[in-house]
Predict the 3D structure of the following.
Amino acid sequence: MKFRSFFLLACASLMMSACIGIDPDDDKDGGTPPSGSSNTPPSGALPSAEFTLNDLPAESYANEAVRIEAKESESGDLPFSTFELFPDGTYLMTYSYNYDYSETNSLKTRADSAAVFHQRTGTLLTRSAADDNGTTYFYGGEYGTFEVVRHKVYRLSNGDEIDLTELGESQIYYSRGGRTSTVYVEETSSRSSDATKSLCRTWDFNSLEMWVYLNGKYVDHVKIVPDSSDYGDDELAEELADALGDAVADKVIFSKNGTYLLITPDGSAHLRNWRWQDEQNGILYWSDNSMGGQTDGSLTVRFAGKQMRFYEDYTTNAEGNSVRMVIVTTLTAVL
């Protein structure tokens, strides 16, 4: 079972292990789902038929947003593989190499390793970590903030500077530790549809609500809200919330270039990809091929003022049992 929800950094096996052994016919508090029959999700768990776009103001650094891919450099060493400025004043950099700790004298891609070698500091990382300046280093890249030094010249929170004034000539200048190198790059074409404009910005997590069904029968309802953990006597809901709570990303940043970041409460960053599967109806496809394997899925997007909701409906089977998870995630735009 490789299933993983868009917003839950946890596998379906967690749900399966929690639900197997539960008798859906047992009488217990919460045994009937809010406003729904015993085997049908309530209306609030299902997306509206109409896909309406939002009309939110542009973020502060919208005019700076860009994504480039490094092709070669004068020194022969690439300081990054891809580099992206987000409209909210943050940046994303992916590295050219990962560190293979089984061969300490070589730098090469190792897709099945959780370790990454950060070239600037020489640090071997096995998980996300933030430095004193707030730059987060994660598997294959880093995420931080930037400031505008002058037109198309930026200082990054990691201390480096990047000069994009000659991007139109397919070259930029990258400064690290007082040394500046010329890097030849290619700018990525961004998506510009109205649906993409509605989606692509920074969003804060509000809540995640999930209805769980075992073999077609309602089992439980869980709602995860920051700083809220009161589930009364519903032990299964409390168990699921405790298990999933730390795995819920509390911020997501969508890029018009087909990438997005999930930021968890501890500052960890997780990079994935997205595209419209059915743009007219607000169906989004996402994928994650990090850590040597790929997980992916589809969800329905709906906008309402400053809010956005993701609707997911997954079923997984194991040991002769079927567990269905209907998930609604509510986000609010960071303005």
Observations:
- The two ends are 38 Å apart (CA to CA).
- The helical segments are 12-19, 194-199, 235-245.
